[in-house]
Amino acid sequence: GSPRRLLLVSNSTLHGGGYLGHCQQHIQSFLGQKVKRVLFIPYALHDRDAYARTAREKFESLGYGLDSIHESCDPVEAVRKSEAIFIGGGNTFRLLKALYDNCLIHEIRKRVLEDGIPYMGSSAGTNVATVSINTTNDMPIVYPPSLQALGLVPFNINPHYLDPDVKSTHMGETREERIRQYHEEPNTPPVLGLREGAMLLVEGDKATLQGVTGARLFLRGKKPTEHEPGTDFSFLLIDSN
């Protein structure tokens, strides 16, 4: 089995709470006592210094040191030496382009899939953990060399998944319709719609839905299905393509 350990969070901030407040207990139980320092990757936001300050404050309050990769003169070496990796939210296209520009795709994959260091993502950081960023909600403000992402799991995620508002007069496509359009293309993998407050814990070949809200699963050619926290999604880890 794979040594991978992932905590893929839909969102960094839940209404009524502070940064990572809704998932801080999950973070502590995920990182445990062995991890002393976390390598933070703030590439999804423009102001990396401010972003690193926010993340550092939170992780230090949980008992972990935090190093931001943008402060390192050698990002590849920083990944090679890291005990755990956290990639935060922001713009997914900006994030993925920076991962390619800094030659980090292969290095992060190796550390997570072969060496088994914990990987945590929220929002855009969750998007890039999957097969591709085709199902992000973000605008393509920059042009990464590929939409292929880290591929730590063999399916896609749509963070911040929104259900249609029955009272709304907005006539644009719903999130469900957009995911269905993605699945009209051949050989597209499953898409897990993670609502705000939901997260997926992956430990080796086991995947479990956690958090306070459910998720909606989209399989190509099938009707979407609803799932509550506690759902075993391990079957998604078997590469269907």
UniProtKB/TrEMBL annotation:
Cellular localisation: Cytoplasm
Gene that specifies this protein: Aada
Function: Hydrolyzes dipeptides containing N-terminal aspartate residues.
Alphabetic keyword roster: Cytoplasm, Dipeptidase, Hydrolase, Protease, Serine protease
Name assigned to this protein: dipeptidase E
Family under the similarity heading: Belongs to the peptidase S51 family.
Domain of life: Eukaryota
PANTHER family: ALPHA-ASPARTYL DIPEPTIDASE, PROTEASE S51 ALPHA-ASPARTYL DIPEPTIDASE
GO MF annotations in UniProt: dipeptidase activity; serine-type peptidase activity
Lineage: Eukaryota, Metazoa, Chordata, Craniata, Vertebrata
A GO term from the CC aspect: cytoplasm
Pfam families listed in its UniProt record: Peptidase_S51
One example of a Gene Ontology biological process annotation: proteolysis
Enzyme class: hydrolase
Naturally occurring in which organism (per UniProt): Xiphorhynchus elegans
Catalyses which reaction(s): Dipeptidase E catalyzes the hydrolysis of dipeptides Asp-|-Xaa. It does not act on peptides with N-terminal Glu, Asn or Gln, nor does it cleave isoaspartyl peptides
EC number: 3.4.13.21
